[in-house]
User: Which sequence fits this backbone?
């Protein structure tokens, strides 16, 4: 690249007039331009910029490291040209201090410096995902508990809980909080969204109404275009002119009238008009051309679908109904906002207690430092900005609105030292809250670059230096056809299209669309089709380019299969294996769940606690140590009465002794060394790192181990035990952990997601499973959010939930934004290819599928935005582009569409078909070897072993531990806690019992006898009892108890133990009466909790509260006598005092019932 810059690249490198936005297409060398600009700023002889006065922001840490390294290399080259230049030598040293990193890292450094201004602890750290997840859940639980005192919030929760759960209400609190955190001023935005519902603005004037009316206008325009094309077809046939044309003309008149009302913003009138549509029947058309007749019928059906969609999706309510819905939602949204504010406060407080902040906290707190309430720069912002002569931002299309404002605050006073690089067509991180609108707004308002022109300006780098001309031409043909400002964010024309940066005469052939017919829509047909093609290309020696411009025959490592998600990796790996093709799926596993980390994690558990036999066995049997199952069996047999670790210590086997010695050494290290150092020591001493590298896909496996060690470095700051607790929490809760970067396995076909492939390139790319439907479920949630339209809620009536105008408008915009991002994801996928590009899909009935697409294209006059916006998968877009391409004859033939308006093609796109399974040539798997005869002696030995019976089989079904309730009552049904919002309703008998036990557990009997209500209120304020428990406590039963003889004995006891837990053991015969006599005395652990234990000088009394509704105390005595006797046996053993009395107190009968103990 440095040998010859294009004019646009050179302008981006050398321009010093002011702010620049560089719109850099895929493969255009944007990183090289960024590096060269930084180097030339440093090396500028007239006005050099010191390296430590550069601020360069990148999207990932890996990209930051690469940038710093490349700048260092270029500075070394410049030093070689100017060997005596002391300035350059100093800059090489200062480069290590330069702020080159992610925006999160920069914000963290800023907060570390100005922590006092924000009341932050000076030693705060980044909250690990697992810790953050735990704190969020705790804060959420407390928020939900408190918010059910708010009647409006309870009403909000009841909308979606269906009287069963409050999970959706809780998730809505989190979703609203997370959404607001992407905005620069969350509280101001929240207030704005609430006021939208408190306005009396007419529906057609609201943002919601305008959004739906705009959609309706586009829909009727599309319907009109289809009707005109249908009418033109009718006029080609005299019979259809008489039979079908009048109905089409009536439809056109209806659409024109509807469009006029929509354009005038007259909601109710447009709604009445839309709902009045009833398609007139087409008259019989005998003798008409069947092909034209069928086409017209299909086109009219399309129009009917569009108008029906307007009836159901836009004009589904009147202005009056909208106003009623708006008034009903207003208090509910206010309540949700209050819940979010409370959650925010609790969550932030919890993070402060842990001295840990999230990434979003870094950005918001940094913005608070740098930006005042009016959007102006603070004094601190001016101080910080003065440290930088240039602010350069890479991947600007993936920033959010907060980051965009931060960059403005970091610029100089006239904001002339900003340099942004990105490509809006590659903005694919919406799920990380990236917002391409900041990029688009600058691109729309900045002037196109002109030498000596007025800044700010936009420079477009259109030359692609990655892909061959054949690939570039095909990509341009696809996106000129389907990408537009409405779908994708930009009009794909002029410099937005790719231009070949290298013209070396190489031609890898057309882009190929591979369609497999698969009746089950199973990925296996697609996978096998790709596997066969890869094998064929390698056998035939398909030529790929080397960097020097030469070519060579391809190998398996030149291929990459891209998928939208990881869910079907296995099918493609299996297909490759069946073909004898080495393949590596980049699963993007989190470091603690990877296969390679499992033995290391087992060993860490053993180091922490050697008594964990399962973890010890896992470590010993793993590749880390290589013990065999027979080794462990022999070890266990040698010492059957002790733990596995105890047997290990007593073993005389040399290999076992070496392992025990290593374990002893590692346990000593764990007492003093951090967890990450301990991990490195384990990897070095066991040679496990080297062993993993020798396995298949060893490079990727090693990266997983490095990622695990890096995770231990941050999560293991509080020692090994705390680290393992954190790991357990992550595994149990499913909390996310960052995965390792993608690693390409040499000589193997790479299988990865499109997102993981960003920034990579491959000689041959297969974009597979293009028939997969776009994920749209989030756009149909009952509660949805949008930065412009605010919050949309569904409401409930007796028949269930129903849509409201705000909810439908937000969903519509979300769907449009999702579709646009899917278009950009497709662009990223196709631009990964250097020499050859394939796209594949397995669809049901390709002929029917293609004919429907072709008719839509014909009816609209091409792939217009309304049509592409309603696509459901990549295959729809790709087949649209192929059907309109001059070279895809076979596709149009299959579709029966010879008259489509073809594009002026730049490249070549062809299509081929493959039937799923039947009649296919067998996959080139290796021939099976002849079947060996079994070893009869071994066979008989195995059969005898399998037929052997375990001598202690009777113990297999005997539980190791029981509760007293399970033992005395033969098991119990677990009482699930009722969701918080249902606590407004009547309590069940079991819940009443729990409430009464809670009061008796915590209440001061002396205070309660004086004033029961005051004592209950004290317990509620102290957090011992919930409001719900206090409200429903049976005060009559409590008053009777407080004045009973039992309560008086409790108050006079030397010691009163409440909810006293104990463990004991009983002979197995009490658990299983029919147990073999040989096992009758085997001990079984029993766990119980005594409600109250009264300790006197000469003995103990046990009191058990019962809330059962019975008529006679004798029933309770018979039912619970065995339980009380078990309590007696256990407590006499534990307290070393005799139990002289066992009492049941019936709260229902207000009666003391004596249980005989003799």
Assistant:
């Amino acid at each position: 690249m440095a040998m010859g810059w294009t004019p646009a690249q050179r302008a981006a490198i050398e321009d010093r007039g002011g702010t620049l936005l560089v719109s850099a297409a895929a493969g255009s060398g944007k990183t090289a331009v960024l590096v060269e600009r930084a180097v030339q700023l440093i090396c500028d002889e007239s006005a050099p910029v010191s390296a430590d006065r550069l601020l360069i922001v990148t999207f990932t840490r890996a990209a930051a490291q690469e940038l710093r390294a490349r700048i260092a290399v270029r500075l070394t080259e410049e030093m070689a040209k100017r060997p005596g230049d002391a300035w350059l030598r100093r800059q090489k040293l200062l480069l290590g201090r330069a702020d080159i990193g992610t925006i999160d890292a920069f914000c963290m450094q800023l907060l570390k410096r100005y922590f006092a201004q924000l009341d932050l602890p000076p030693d705060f750290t980044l909250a690990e995902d697992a810790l953050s997840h735990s704190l969020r859940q705790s804060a959420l639980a407390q928020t939900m508990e408190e918010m059910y005192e708010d009647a409006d919030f309870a009403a909000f929760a009841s909308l979606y809980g269906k009287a069963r759960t409050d999970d959706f209400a809780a998730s809505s609190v989190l979703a609203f909080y997370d959404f607001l955190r992407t905005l620069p001023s969350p509280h101001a935005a929240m207030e704005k969204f609430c006021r939208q519902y408190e306005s009396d603005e007419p529906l057609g004037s609201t943002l919601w109404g305008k959004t739906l009316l705009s959609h309706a206008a586009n829909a009727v325009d599309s319907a009109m275009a289809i009707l005109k094309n249908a009418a033109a077809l009718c006029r080609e046939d005299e019979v259809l002119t008489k039979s079908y044309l009048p109905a089409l003309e009536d439809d056109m008149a209806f659409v024109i009238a509807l469009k006029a009302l929509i354009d005038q913003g007259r909601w109710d009138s447009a709604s009445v008009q839309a709902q009045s549509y009833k398609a007139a029947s087409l008259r019989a058309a005998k003798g008409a051309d069947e092909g034209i007749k069928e086409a017209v019928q299909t086109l009219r059906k399309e129009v009917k679908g569009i108008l029906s969609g307007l009836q159901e999706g836009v004009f589904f309510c009147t202005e009056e109904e909208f106003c009623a819905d708006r008034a009903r939602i207003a208090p509910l949204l206010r309540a949700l906002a209050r819940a979010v504010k409370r959650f925010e406060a609790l969550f932030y407080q919890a993070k402060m207690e842990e001295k840990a902040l999230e990434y979003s906290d870094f950005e918001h707190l940094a913005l608070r430092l740098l930006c005042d309430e009016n959007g102006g720069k603070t004094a601190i912002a001016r101080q910080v900005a003065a440290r930088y002569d240039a602010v350069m931002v890479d991947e600007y299309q993936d920033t959010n609105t907060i980051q965009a404002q931060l960059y403005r605050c970091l610029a100089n006073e006239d904001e002339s030292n900003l340099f942004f690089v990105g490509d809006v067509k590659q903005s694919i991180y919406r799920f990380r809250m990236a917002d391409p609108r900041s990029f688009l707004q600058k691109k729309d308002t900045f002037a196109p670059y002109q030498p000596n022109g007025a800044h700010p300006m936009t420079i477009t780098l259109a030359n692609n230096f990655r892909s061959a001309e054949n690939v570039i031409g095909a990509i341009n043909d696809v996106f000129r056809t389907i990408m537009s400002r409405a779908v994708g964010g930009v009009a794909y024309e002029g410099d937005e299209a790719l231009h070949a940066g290298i013209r070396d005469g190489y031609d890898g052939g057309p882009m190929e669309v591979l369609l497999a017919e698969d009746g089950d829509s199973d990925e296996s047909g697609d996978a096998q089709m790709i596997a066969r093609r890869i094998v064929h290309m390698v056998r035939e020696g398909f030529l790929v380019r080397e960097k020097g411009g030469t070519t060579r025959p391809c190998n398996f490592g030149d291929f990459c299969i891209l998928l939208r998600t990881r869910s079907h990796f296995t099918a493609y790996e299996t297909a490759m294996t069946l073909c004898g093709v080495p393949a590596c799926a980049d699963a993007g596993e989190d470091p603690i769940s990877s296969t390679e980390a499992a033995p290391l994690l087992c060993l860490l558990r053993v180091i922490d606690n050697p008594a964990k036999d399962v973890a010890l066995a896992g470590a010993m049997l793993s590749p880390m140590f290589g013990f065999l199952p027979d080794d462990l069996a022999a070890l266990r047999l040698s010492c059957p009465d002790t733990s596995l670790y105890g047997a290990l210590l007593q073993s005389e086997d040399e290999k076992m002794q070496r392992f025990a010695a290593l374990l002893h050494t590692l346990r000593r290290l764990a007492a003093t060394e951090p967890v990450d150092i301990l991990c490195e020591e384990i990897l070095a001493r066991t040679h496990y790192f080297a062993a993993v590298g020798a396995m298949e896909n060893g490079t990727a496996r090693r990266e997983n181990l490095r990622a695990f060690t890096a995770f231990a470095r941050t999560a293991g700051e509080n020692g090994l035990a705390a680290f393992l607790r954190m790991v357990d929490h992550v595994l149990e809760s499913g909390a996310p952990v960052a995965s390792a970067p993608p690693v390409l396995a040499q000589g193997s076909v790479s299988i990865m997601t499109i997102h993981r492939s960003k920034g990579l390139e491959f000689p041959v790319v297969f974009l597979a499973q293009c028939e997969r439907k776009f994920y749209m479920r989030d756009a149909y949630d009952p509660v949805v959010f949008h930065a412009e339209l605010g919050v949309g809620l569904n409401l409930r009536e007796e028949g269930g939930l129903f849509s409201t105008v705000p909810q439908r408008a937000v969903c519509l915009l979300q769907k449009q934004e999702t579709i646009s991002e899917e278009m950009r994801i497709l662009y990223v996928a196709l631009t990964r290819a250097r020499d050859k590009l394939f796209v594949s899909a397995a669809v049901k009935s390709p002929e029917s599928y293609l004919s429907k697409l072709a008719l839509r294209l014909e009816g609209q006059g091409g792939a217009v935005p309304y049509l592409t916006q309603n696509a459901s998968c990549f295959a729809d877009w790709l087949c649209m582009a192929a059907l309109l391409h001059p070279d895809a004859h076979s596709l149009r033939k299959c579709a029966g569409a010879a008259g489509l308006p073809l594009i002026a093609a730049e490249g070549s796109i062809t299509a081929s078909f493959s039937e799923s399974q039947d009649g296919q040539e067998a996959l080139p798997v290796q021939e099976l070897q002849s079947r060996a005869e079994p070893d009869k002696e071994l066979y008989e030995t195995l059969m005898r072993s399998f037929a052997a019976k375990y001598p202690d089989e009777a113990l297999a079904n005997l539980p190791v531990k029981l509760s007293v309730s399970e033992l005395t009552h033969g098991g119990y049904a677990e009482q699930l806690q009722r969701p918080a919002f249902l606590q407004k309703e009547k309590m069940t008998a079991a819940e009443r019992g729990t409430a009464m036990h809670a009061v008796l557990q915590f209440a001061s009997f002396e205070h309660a006898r004086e004033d029961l209500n005051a004592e209950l209120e004290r317990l509620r304020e102290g957090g011992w009892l919930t409001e719900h428990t206090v409200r429903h406590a049976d005060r009559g039963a409590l008053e009777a108890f407080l004045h009973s003889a039992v309560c008086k004995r409790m108050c006079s006891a030397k010691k009163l133990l409440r909810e006293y837990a104990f463990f004991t053991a009983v002979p197995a015969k009490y658990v299983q009466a029919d147990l073999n006599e040989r096992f009758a005395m085997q001990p079984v652990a029993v766990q119980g909790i005594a409600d109250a234990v009264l300790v006197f000088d000469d003995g103990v009394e046990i009191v058990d509260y019962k809330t059962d509704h019975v008529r006679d105390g004798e029933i309770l005595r018979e039912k619970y006598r065995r339980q009380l006797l078990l309590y007696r046996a256990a407590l006499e053993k534990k307290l070393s005092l005799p139990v002289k009395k066992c009492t049941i107190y019936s709260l229902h009968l207000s009666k003391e019932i004596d249980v005989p103990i003799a």
User: Anything to note?
Assistant: The longest strand covers residues 1055-1067. Residues 562 and 638 are 53 Å apart (CA to CA). Residues 916-931, 971-985 have pLDDT under 50 and may be disordered.
